[in-house]
Amino acid sequence: MKFPVSILVVLITLNLLACSSSPDELYGNSQVQPNLEIPPDLTVENSDARLELPSAVSAGSNGITATGNKTPVLPEMQTIKLEGYADFYWVSVDGTVDDTYQLVKNFWKSEGFILKMDEPVIGTMQTEWIYNKEGTGDEDRNFISKFFGGDELSASQDQFKTRIARDPETGTTQIYISHRGTTYIHELSTRATEDSSKGEEWGFRASDSELEVEMLSRLMIYLGVERSELDEHLVNIRLFAPRASLQVDFKENETYLELKGEYSRNWHRTLHQLERINFEVAESNMKSGLSGDGVMLVVTDIDTKVEKSGFFTFSTEYENQKKQIYLIFTEETPELTRISMEDKEGEIDNSPEAVEFLTLLKEFLK
Fold it and tell me: What is the rounded distance in angstroms from the CA atom of residue 282 to the CA atom of residue 299?
């Protein structure tokens, strides 16, 4: 059966109009049904929640650092170990130096410390001094005896310095925390003739390795280590310290130290002890020059007389300066490190002041 051409044209036109109809016209009479009922033991996830972390993160958040208006998540560390020798400990992690630095910085903030020094380029940060008031002595004394009698008002301050360095041999990142402490004692007296300024100066006290271990332990928990696992680490680190011995080469007229143990650990341990006893390390380079020896420039507290120089000086004049010593670290064997001393001209320094300094250093490294 054949259709007239006019009828075919009408059918095609109607079909095209139906295809071009808008959704509003097609579903204008549709109705929205009520939402499905959720059982009382289930909750509805907020579909409008953003995928970005909030700008303020709690102190317990692991591996989070703020950058601008966003807070990216740092990768979690799979390996966290506490290692050490007797009174020298550190934490080894498998993260990068940059990520580890930011995590440690967040840790100090969570502990309530303010950073006095923040140098991510060299991997070093240092907290402000924390003041600890220790009050008076005997609490059972009566008011009259406390008011008129002699007494001591004491206080202390604590400061922590953190170094983060990459170990080229193991490929891990190591975190070192050194403690420095001061004490202040003001003596009250009943005699008006006594010097009232006696004992009013802050003085350095011995560094506390237990405080360093405590901070390293808190850091490990902050990084995600369980308390039971941390207790196992504290038991396993009871290792023997490498022995330090003072040697004398009479032929070269040289006094030097020998340290048993691996080179990089001896380097970090020496640097750690210098920080604890408050010696300034002006320069440090673990491997330098063609020889590959390590060099530390240490500013001691020993006053030495140095001759003044000048064009218009007709008589010999001297001035006091703090003695500077170059410590040269040489890897004699994989398990033996030699520490020699040189002056700024590169000559062997065997002066009484240098030998005295090296003897003191040996007591902290033995």
Answer: 7
Assigned domain for 36 exists = no
119 touches 165 (CB < 8 A): no
Asked if residue 290 and residue 181 are part of one domain, the reply reads no
Largest CA distance in the chain: 137
**Cα distance between residue 235 and residue 76, in whole Å:** 25
The model's pLDDT over 137-151, given as tens digits with 9 standing for 90+, comes to 444 444 333 333 444
Strands 115-119 and 124-127: antiparallel
First-last CA distance in the chain? 114
Task: Confirm whether 16 is domain-assigned.
Answer: no
- Considering the domain architecture, whether residues 230 and 361 belong to the same structural domain is answered as no
Residues with Cβ < 8 Å from 203, sequence gap 6 or more?
A: 182, 183, 184
pLDDT at 207 over 60: yes
Q: What residues make up the domain containing 326? A: 244-365
Per the DSSP assignment, residues forming a β-bridge with 166 are: 173
Residue 207, both tokens: 């560094």
Distant-in-sequence, close-in-space partners of 269: CB < 8 Å, separation ≥ 6: 85, 88, 242, 259, 261, 365
pLDDT in tens, 81-114: 998 876 788 999 998 999 999 999 999 999 999 9
User: Is residue 299 within 8 Å of residue 287, measured between CB atoms?
Assistant: no
What pLDDT, on a 0 to 100 scale, did the predictor assign at position 65? 41
Dihedral (CA of 135, 136, 138, 139) sign: negative
Helices (H), 27-167: 97-110, 143-148
Q: Phi first, then psi: what are they for 190, rounded to 5°? A: -95, -10
